[in-house]
Queue: 2 jobs
Job 1
Amino acid sequence: MKKIFTVITLLVFLKNYSQQINTMISSGWDMSLYCAISPNNKYVAKMDKMKATIWDFKTGRLVREIIFTTTPLSNYVKENVPDSISFSSNDNSVFIYKCGALYPGENATKSATITEISIETGIAGKEELNLKPVRNIDSINTNLILKVISSNKEFSYSSPNGKNEVVYQNTSADGGLILNIYIKKNGVLSKVLGHPMCINYAFSSDSRYLFANGFIYDFLLDKKICELKSVPFIPFGCGFLNNSNTLYTAAKDEIIIWDLPDIKRLKTPDLLSSINSNNGEYLAYATGDLQYESKQGYVINLITKEKVGKPVQFHPNEFEQIKDVSDDGKYLLTISPKGNRIYNCATGELIRHFPEYRMNTAFFLNNSEVTNYDVSKGTPGEIMRYNIFTDKNEPFDIKEMLPLGKHEAIISLTRLKKDHLLVSTWAGEKKINIYILNIETKDVDKLTTTTELIVAESSKMSKDNNLVAFNMGGTKIGVFNKKTKKTIELNQFSYISNFAFSSDGKHLISSLVDGTSKYWDLETGKEIASIISTGYQEYVITTPEQYYMSTKGAAEYVHFVKGNNLYGVEQFDLKYNRPDLVLKKMGLGNEKVIEAYHKAYLKRLKKMKLTEDMLSDELNLPEIKIKNSEQISSIQNESVLKINLEVLDKKYNLDRINIWINDVALYGTKGISIKSKNALNYETDLTIDLKKGINNIQFSVLNIAGAESYKESVTVNCTKGKEKPDLYLLCIGSGEFIQKEFNLTYASKDAMDIKQMLSTNKNYGRVYTKTLTNKEVTKNNVILLKDFLKTADRNDEVILFYAGHGVLDKDLDYYLSSGDIDFTNPSAKGIPYEVLENILDSIAPLKKILLIDACHSGEIDKEEVQVTASDKPNSGITFRNVGTAIAQKDSYLGLENTSELTKTLFTDLRKGTGATVISSAGGKEYAMESGQWKNGLFTYCLLRGLKDNTADLNKDGQIMLSELQQYLTTEVSNLSNGAQQPTSRIENISADFRIW
């Protein structure tokens, strides 16, 4: 047998890959057909024809992406295409197989080439020849997908021990690609576990686990134990606004105009696909359901942000899709297996149906004419030209305009502009010619004949007519320069849904089905940034240098990898979350804005007591190791976990160990002191109480110099614990004082109303309450409230509510009113804010909230405010503030000071007690109460949001903490006309739990 020496070439992005810290955002839907579970259940792998991805078994986080630089998308190319993947016995490597059998129904050959790739480094070893077939192609998904299309109804695959099965069912009447997936155990089908677009599955060698379509199922526990943490949204379109360099992307539920630093959003529920007009002025988009069945088509004017005319109703069960929109936005063109259709956008009415035209080469030649391939006459077919106004359909012979060879046939035709077409032709085996044709002047540019099979499926032309971009086989974009006659290739490593030139022709934006939109520099051919939409109004933008900017909600999709070790977003967020550098790299935002973002970043570091120099990779750090990590099961059937820790430092003695579960410090903010050991290394055994459900446990060690180690973590799913948590509710209402002129009417009522409302919550097993009002509210009584929480366990929840005055002393330190407070000297008997925080520190429950309805309850940056005369309006509204009044110092940032900008841009990484603290007003603002609300405004909105379920923003029947935060911010601001805006002093991004 002749040995094959052609190896799979790998693209290695960074030198010393195993030592580089890599920012990871696990993107969305992909085209993976093959998958595997590692022998020791440490990793799972997915692979398509372009890349393999390795994922952590316990957390579902992406560990490594291995990209093949071959172009394996052509159905005509059989060589060097990966078609199977497996792991080494020690879980350190993956093996990529090339069986040389891609056609449906073919069996694997007797030999296969294998390349071993290190998971830690991503570097390939030598390719070897295996004399045994890897597996039969009949069990590989290439064949199965064709079976799905042919309307087979059910596919069932047994585990190695034959006891369990994974079942796929095709429920579509016309053989659509969307399936239902089930687990069959003891002959009984589970509920539907998902709706995949293709069949891929792998069982563990012991038959306990199944990895299928992005989730891991445990047959022993009979449930999903992990789902890959990947962005679920596909960008269905992209482009630049007419005559500008302002880019936009279209993803699920919204069109985003990235006029950075400002972002404008156009809500588009259930957006399924989109096409932009060639002039960039209009966007046509379709809405649909999970079956990828389009229901309606819309056209929107991107300049006015208004929809054009009426929606177009698509035909059911035809998979009718938008193909083009005219440059004037008046007409819509669709394609389906049952022909092409033209619609009037103003009326939504059908103008013409061409059942004989079913090729993707249909497009608007100009605002009144459409071209089609007549497939009824066979290959190469006849090109027709239909005029909407005259209703004439006549032959359009462009073959005479092209220097075609004797056997050269047109296989693809797309419009570049109203007078330019791009034509690709079959010129022999593996040879494609691409022509750029000006149909008015008959001028032709011919690209060099390719040696690969490349089909220009779509194409665009720059405004100056010099650059032409075309889709090369689905995953590359070729950009042809008519002046230099050279073509650069932009390798996307995922399937392309759309792309467009900027107005000045210097940049290109592409949208990919893996969830990203890529922004390219056409001078260098290099990627500038990737934009990822993670949900409505949530996004991440990353650069190849690993820097990123994101909304707070999108931070849950960010993590870091060094070697094959995973770290949470908080570990390196301080270094790599750099909006200033991202905007600078993208060339967006003026110098003033970028400087403001940098100042906000520096302010954040200062709050964390760090400097930029302290974030250097060369900083001496202590180390921490979980010595028994390999023995820890991801499923824990006991409520405790035993951990063996080793901590060490090469230079300084060790100071303390910190441990968190879901970002809550188990041993308080001070951790476990080991300073008395006077040691450079130390080993200890710990027993940790778990909560029911997911426990993300993190460990770090600090040395006496204050340097903290990278955090090591273990994630386990605990099956023990209460079915319903108990609620421990502490309510404080401070409204009556020795100095009676400062009495409040509704503070004590607020506390009692909150107690009454939450005591009726049936989501808890029991509700334990403790209330202090008026004269009972003393500093000592408040401190003693902590004793009330001693009986709470890990699974319980704690809510601490305070209503009263917020007071600043002359040093701008913050106090809350007590019944015996001296408002001229609040530090004497007032309640320091830290006392409330301390109540929630070092207690067993992980889920805890502090709600403060008082003036100045948000954080104050003393450097950015100044003492001033009170500016409270006299409007019959009482303000919960006395003492020092403050105002914002003059700043070139205007009203948005650095501290506020920091809160907007960055997640607060100070873990503190692990509680989320929701303040009724900003640090410079007053909190209101009024007879109009018969409560404090903040409390009024809180009660109404729960009672009327208006805080259930997604209407799923439950109110989550994150929804309550968003609701309070909006409602309080609206009712106060922006004078009072709730904020979060600190928040636990890992603890979003049900409140009501």
Job 2
Amino acid sequence: MEVFKDKFWLVVVVAFLITFQGIFFSEEEKNFSKSDSGYLENVENTFDSLFLNIEGNSDPCRFFEKILFKLKNAWLSDTNGNALIKRAVTRLKKRFPGVFEFSFVNRDGNVIPELCDFPPPKVMIKKFFLDYRSFLSGKSALPERQKTFIQGFLGKFVPFNQQIHNRVLFATEGFRKRYVFISRPSSKGCFIVHLNQVDDWNLLTLRDIIKQFQKKRTSFKLGFFDNDSKTFFPPLGVYCVNKEVKNLLTEMSDEKGKAIVRGRYVYSAKLISPRICLVAGKAVPDSYFEKKRLLHITAICVLAILLVIFASLYHYREYFLKMLTIRNKLMIIFAASAGIPLLIVVFNAFSFLMDKRQIIESEVFSQVAVGLNKFDGGLQAFIKDIGKELSSELESLQKSTRQDSIKEDLEKLVSRNEISYIRLFDRKGKLVFRKEGNMGVSAFESLFLDFGPSVVKMFKQIDSGEAIVGKRVSLETAKRKKGQIDEGNLLLSMITSNIGSASLMEMENLKIVTFTYLLRDQAGQPSHFVFIFWEKKQIENLYLKKHLLKLWRDIPQTRVWAVWGNELENKLPPAKKWPKTMIQFVNSLGVGGSVRTQIQKEPKGEVLLTGFRCKALEDRFLIARTSDSMIRRELGVIKYQILGIIFFIAFFSISSAIFLAQRFLNPASRLKVGIEMLRSRNFNFRSEVVGSGEWKELLTTFNQIMEGMKELEVAKVLQDGFFPSSSLDLTNWRIHGVCIPTMQVGGDYFDYVPVKDNKALILVGDVSGHGVSAALVVAMAKAILSHPLTPLNPKETLEILNYLFFKTLRRKKNMTCVACLLDATAGTITVSNAGQSFPLIIRNDKVIEVELPSFPLGVKKTTKLEIAEFVLQPDDILIFYTDGIVEYPDQEGKMIGYERFFSDISKRVGKTPLETVKNTMVWLESIVKNSPQRDDITLVVCQKL
């Protein structure tokens, strides 16, 4: 111990050297190390979000949908004579040269020439605008004449008699104007955009995203590598951070999406298609390394300071122990025995709960992702189920011989199964029944007209015993053998490959689900051929309607929405307006099958978002929103278990602490009893002196205080005898007063002495200070006033008091005092004042101050006192008081003040002086309540009865 004490300053010097070395000689290498894994993980997550965002916007159709949707909003908000929309269109054409061709119409359907890139068919566009607006309002369906306009102007593959606005639609095959976009008709009008498929169409949006990104983000550099052409965009050295990226691609080929460090640079790459590899790079700023060095220096300085503190505590431990109070010692004991273990347990429990929550969240995300993928893959099974259901329903038509009956049954079949397109042929190839819904099937129209001979040929093959099932000719084979197979046989081979079952067929960029069935007569011979198909999107919607809500029940605490393309208002099932964060999450989704997860905080808890772009359900996104209530319940059980452990540790620790602190608590309980006796004014109580050290001193001192308080109690009784015990009555006047000291005894004094001829001398004084010393001065004043030779005249009485106070107190104490002689018969008062608060006269609810300024008594050997005489009116009330009333703080800590006292005292006047005093004291207590009294309070009231 002594050796350590002798070398205390050596410890201080060592701590100083450590700090000096940390500041001046500890230079962190400006390179990455294992300690930078957290930073690298953040950069990697940033790269991953960036790649997903680009991947989700790499589809040109979806990308241009977003741009044109924003253009539609700009068009609606343009109130400056189309000036803003002109600039927006010009910028868009400059940004994507050769892609867009615009046609704008106003609210009446008339073409706006200055906003059109080519002369459109004005009359047809106007009719289409008016008819389509009427169709959207539900007033009517699109007339048949619009079918020609849609196929001729917009494109032959654009659907007819259904909503086609706010989507980039496939329009034509083999032409430059491959796609079309139509804005929703509004009070402003609408616009039609033809999109030309320019060279490198698939790379067009990717290049634009990179260009726009580089304009806004200078810290990140972005590009892509084209595996087909073996080139970069932009070229190396222009946008990329380092020319070593090309060499790093080989190294990153096995770890796509992982961050790779080269010096002070971080790179990452991701393959978004067999052709395109995105590459991103970021230079780590110098501030990061400076921050690391600053943290290193701070840690060294803290270590040195702690070393000095602990050395100081050990070296001066006796001094510090003496400085600690009893409360501090008890706090240290409880903190050491209970607080520190509890903090360790709570910290470990918090870390465990955080890790457990992450594990549960990962399991939930995995469960939801499996459910969504399974749901996406269930479309094929749903198509097969539809075929089975239709087959079972059509079996009931086998015995029907009348065509009218078959038609009626087929009508019911169509309504029950939401069939959009159906054809019924007889053995002769005659079309005996047809029905079609709101589908754009113009590409098949010519095939259906010539389908009769193909049906006849099929029946002949059946009669001859040839098998027709399984002889499917693919579209690719038909194209290679063009001229060797007619379109009717091609269609027949595709739709009859699986008679009695539903199957997906793709032709001319249209995807449909077909179902074929042979109706037989009573003899079992084929009599009719039924051909049914749905547009694939309609089958998808039917699948979602029937099975999406079931998915809600299969995945606990989860709500799933299917979003069609970029139109977030097209959700199934319908939902309220989505928050901005949900929209951003949908926009960040990548290509088909790429699952993305995100956690969002809401007022009621966290929400787990899972989503991906479907593979089977084309152009649709499945968004799952899972509440964390189940996670919170599971964590709640663990929390209760941990709380049980914490309570056990707390109970054990606190019990130990109480046992160890018992030697302090026993004397404290005795002292507490003594304090209760002090409050109850039982000054005869003496506490037993137990313990040692501070407790012994405290209990001894407490007994001494009780002894002094007993003496003060006697002094209080004696001082109370100085003051009049009751009111003084003259012929028609009554005087009453009260004094409330701050402590046991006080320095305020009041008295009223009857004088011959129906007169009374009233004195109110205030000695400087409080307590016993002030009470002694009051006793002197009482003794002087009680002497028979003391003249009962205001001025002379004050002069005698001043002379004696100056001679005996030697200016260590002084006293303010006012003396007043009341003549009850004449109704006059004679007043003399020595620095006391001016007496008050309340006359007609107004307060009048009797101003006679002068020095207090005992300040000068002789003092000049003025005397004044006043005539009182019958209703006047005379009040004397000390400044303890006006200096009393209210509940807000502000003094009552003279103005407030004067304004309220006139409202407290009663019928007698005693009543007036009581009313004033009640008013005072209502203002101050529990505020501490700062000075003695005295109040004397003279009132005519």
